Every structure is written in C-alpha cells, then in structure tokens.
Amino acid sequence: MTKNKCIRHGEAMLIPVDVHVIGKEHTSFIVAHSETGHHHVLESETPFVVSEVDKQFIIELFEPAQLVHKKMTDKHKTLPVAPGKYKVVYKNEYNPFLQEIQKVLD
Amino acid sequence: MSQFTKEAQDVIDRLAAINYDEPYWNEAEVIKCFERQYKLFGLEMPKIEIADNMLVGYQLARDAAWDAARRAAWGAAQRAAQRASQDAARDAAWDAAQDASRGAAWGAARDASRNASQDASRGAAWDAAWGAAQGAAQDAASLNTGLSDAATLKWIDVSQEELKALENGLGFFFPMQDKLILVPMPRIIMENNATLHYDHGKAVEWKDGTGFYFLHGVKFDDEKLYQSIVDQTITAEDALNIRDTDQRMAAIAMLRPDRLLDQMKAKLVHTGVKGTKLYEVDDFMGTGRTEYCMFMVDSSTPREFIEWVEPTIGKQKDADLCQANAFGIPLEDYLLMELEG
Question: Backbone phi, then psi, for B247, in 5-degree steps?
C-alpha cells in the first residue's frame, strides 16, 4: 500500500493509488490546464508513465518530480512529488445561481 | 502525431503569436496585402478608406453599395473549398485557428461595435464587416484539407494575405462595391484568453479612444455602473438589483470576497484545520435558500477567494469536509494532505 499523501496544486490534486499503470512515457506533462494558459506541469528528468482511462490520468513516477505552475506572477509554489502512483482529480464547486456543480477554473 | 498539417499548424502558430495587447498598425503593408488579394481575384483595387474605429467603419459601410464582385469571387472560392471531402480536417483546423485568434473575443468586439452603431448598420453593412482573424483562420482550415485543386489553392493564397494583414495590425475590413474600408485592430484585453475583461478601462479600445467596457465577457454601456463595480463602491444590494442578468452576475463576481460576505450578512460557521472558513448565507440573493461558501486564502499567493458549496454538504458545517468533497476524496485523506501549492 502506498505511503504517499495527497498533493494539491491549485485546483488539481494528486491522489496516491495502487494500480497497474500502462501508458506513454513523458518527462513533462500538463496535469491541469489553466484557462489563462498558465498550466500546472509535472516535470522530471527521468521519464514517468501516464495513462488515460475514461479521461482520468494515472501517473507512475519512478524518480522524484516537480509540480510547476507556468506563470510569472501570483503563481502556485513548486511542489516536490515523491515516486509512486497517483491519479489526478480536479476540484469542483457549486454554482448557487444555477444550482449546479461545475469545474473550478484556475 | 499532430492532427494538423505543418502548413496549417504554421498558420495557427502565427495567429497565436499576434499581440492583441499592443497592436501595431502598418497601413502601407496592410494595403499591399489587399492589392495582392484583389489581383488574385482578378479585380481592380477600389478606393481605400481608413476608419479610425469600428463605429466609423460601419457608418462608411452604410452608405456603400454591396460589392457584387466580392460575393461572386468570394462565394466561388468558398464554395470550392466547401466541396472538399475533408470536412473534419478543415473544421478542426478552423476551430484551433479561431481559438488561437481568440475568435470569441473578436466576435464579441465586432458585435459590440455593430450594436453600438445600430442606426448606421442597415442592409448590406450589417454583414459586410469581415474580421481579419476569420479570414486567416480560413487559411488554416483550407491548408489542413491537403487539397490542391485550383480553387482551394486560390482560397489559400487569398486567406494568406489576410493573415499578413492581421499581423500588420488589421482588425476588420468592409469590401464594398466601390471601396475597401479598413479598420485597425483595437487593443483587446482579455481574461482566460477568450473573454473580454478589463477592470482598468475599456477592454476594446481604438487609438482614438472609442471602445467598450467589458467585465468577464459582459458589455457595460453604462460607464458609471462599470466604474462603480471596478471601484468597489457598488453595494451588494445594488449589484443584485441590476436588471441585466449577465451584468448582475458579472458585478457580483467582481465584488471583493470580504465585502461580498459582509453585504450578504454571511455567518461564519466553521474554520477548518487548514484555515478554510465556511460561511452560511441565509436567504441567498432573496431566494429564500440557505447557501454555503468557503472563504480561502491561497497557500502560495495573498489572493483571497470564495468557492460555493453544495448545500447538502455545507449544512454539515465542516469546512474541511467541504474541501474534501470538492475534490471528491474522503475527509481523512484531505486531512492527511501535507503538500499544498
């Protein structure tokens, strides 16, 4: 069982999981797209694997990586991400005017 | 592998590179683009008129007759391209090029101008305005079909000139029967790369000062109302009483979180272990409903913001539970989280 903890970066969260990951290799991967183009990017010198199942991303890191916010000002701080397997989830919020749930825009 | 051909991607990249914040009007180059374009059509170059802004452009177009030759030439080339079987490829590139050229913002700016000059924009003038970015997007769309028949190649060459004109500061043009009216690109300020928004003046503004106020994509013709919103002098009650629904929503979204909470008479019901504050708002916006919101300070920046909470979760009066639910994770996992940015 994984001992890693959840990592929140803006409106995206990496949640440790224990599943088999089959996917493509990356050294840089956009974890969360920002409406302003200031994406949240997972970066590592060592390739990691990303699989996409039903529009959900599962990531397997073999070495430490960093979560970086590609913005000059008002940016989220860079966070270290320990090796392990994570699924990416995105924050939702309730719209009291429409009385419905919607994705939070970062 | 990219869904776009190299040539189409090149156009998309050039559209994305255009600086809308500080457009530079190179009149001589823009005119040369149209001289080449008219030559491609086999048409005589008409008289050129430069309009300082879109309102003037529409007024000039009002008095001009439809360019029958434009319809014939453009229509023939357009129909030829539309006969292409690679509709999906064309449409994908069109969409991407429109996104790159901020097509939604362009459309809003054009429509704002048209609405403002309603009296002037009757008949042919209504539809005569053609956005330079739209033409350039046609270029990408046509290139992506991979077709090489004469009509498509001609369409590509024609559209290429509009891309060059756009890169030299052209905003809109009216190809009328006996004249060509050119309107420089206004300065366009956006949020989210596609929504007109500026809280320090006009989001769309030409060099002569003509322009329009937009907040979160909503146009404000009433300058006093706009100013009261950006100055934060408007009360929540006045914001709620704005008759236009879109303007009302935009105004409320602009209210500073602490002022909004204060004016909604929100009650603090719980502070979470990570600092999130949960507020309860009775009779939300006069609806009779009780709503809940989280007030947060970003862990990386000094930004404060509010996120609303589904009432069934909010009424449990646990700020951390609200946060966990928003991410779709168990409360215990949220509480164990150590890294946040």
Answer: -65, -35
Q: If chain B, 341 residues long, is cut into consecutive pieces of 10 residues, what is the mean pLDDT of each piece?
A: 77 84 91 93 92 87 59 55 53 64 63 55 47 70 74 82 90 86 90 80 93 91 95 84 83 84 92 94 90 85 81 97 95 87 76
The token pair at B337 is 């989280």
- Across A1-106, where does the E strand assignment appear? 7-9, 12-16, 24-32, 40-53, 56-61, 65-69, 79-81, 84-90, 92-95, 100-103
Mutant choice from B310, B331, B334, B338 vs A, greatest count of A C-beta within 10 A: B310
Please tell me which residue of chain A has the smallest CA distance to B248. A97
- Among A89, A95, A105, the residue with its CB nearest the CB of B329 is A89
Q: Judge contact between B139 and B13, C-beta under 8 A.
A: no
Q: Mark yes or no for CB contact B337/A9 under 8 Å.
A: no
Q: How far is B315 from chain A (nearest CA, A)?
A: 14
ipTM summary value: 0.87
